[in-house]
Amino acid sequence: MTAIHETMANVLRCVTGRQYLAFPFQHLYRRRKKDNRSIPPSMMQKIKLITDLATQAGETDLASKIRYVFDDVLRNAISHSDYILTDDQFRIREAGPGTSIALSGIDRKVNYTFRFLSGLLAAANNMKSALRHAPKYHKWKNYEVLELLADESSVYGFHVHFSNGNKSTFMRTKDGVTQVNMRTSDGIGFMVGMIDDLEPIWKINGVPVDDWEKLKKVRASDS
Predict the structure, then answer these.
(1) CA 115, 119, 125, 127: dihedral to nearest 10 degrees?
(2) Distance separating alpha carbons of residues 77 and 153, to the nearest angstrom
(3) Within 37-131, where are the H helices?
(4) CA–CA separation, 106 vs 120, rounded Å?
(5) For residue 34, is pLDDT > 90?
(6) Which of 76, 77, 98, 136 has the fewest C-beta atoms under 10 angstroms from its C-beta?
């Protein structure tokens, strides 16, 4: 679920005007005192961050529905196999008096969760597919050029070209992930190269762009 939680957190971060983070839950990690071991955030901590972002974005209905499907008691019972199934109940074994949940209620939560996650993943894939028809090249204000990389089905990465002839690259394909001249700590950053060689000119692969109107017609999926 980590990748899906990160997707949700970053979409909501962007909606609320924050930058994309490759590791949006990194600040929730803790260090164990006795051996300095890194302790990842709990599911409850991640869900709280997501629902807080949803509330800040004005998506209170989304926050409410996420809280509905996330049941920490139910999750822990399943994770630790501390439950008993009857014909119509899910009985949880825990310290003190046990609790039970009607199986029909669990079915509703599970079915809703699958519908929600299927819709989320479909929306993400549809956007990547739609972007393959978007312009391939985009001007950035500091004389960088963003180049979208796409195949016949969807966008799979990008180059960022700098006016000194260098570029940064990110690609995710079935063969793996390529990341060149980039950092992902505390947001996305680019290693430009020799700063003194930068010029107030937009370039692609070191060649100045002299006809932006022509480039606007080039689609991301064009080879």
Answers:
(1) 180
(2) 41
(3) 43-56, 60-69, 72-79, 103-131
(4) 21
(5) no
(6) 98
Predicted confidence (pLDDT) at residue 12 exceeds the cutoff of 80:
yes
Q: Minimal CA–CA distance to 120: which of 4, 201, 32, 221?
A: 4
String of DSSP letters for 116-140: HHHHHHHHHHHHHHHHTTSBSEEE-
What does the alpha-carbon distance between residue 65 and residue 170 come to, in Å, rounded to a whole number?
34
CA distances (Å), origin 113, targets 99, 153, 206: 22, 27, 48
Q: Residue type for 91, please?
A: R
- What is the number of other CB atoms lying within 10 angstroms of the CB of residue 9? 22
d(CA 28, CA 43): 11
Whole-angstrom Cα distance, residue 8 to residue 53?
9
Q: What angle do CA 95, 101, 102 make, to 5 degrees?
A: 155
CB–CB of 191/180 below 8 Å?
no
What is d(CA 209, CA 161) in angstroms, rounded to the nearest whole number? 11
* Whole-number Cα distances in Å, 70 to 74, 99, 106, 122, 171: 8, 17, 11, 21, 33
Say which range, 20-24, 92-96, 140-144, 168-172, has the weakest mean pLDDT. 92-96
Give the pTM.
Answer: 0.83
> Per residue in 131-164, is it b (16+ CB within 10 Å) or e — as a string?
bbeebbbbeeeebbbebbbbeeebbbbbbbbbbb
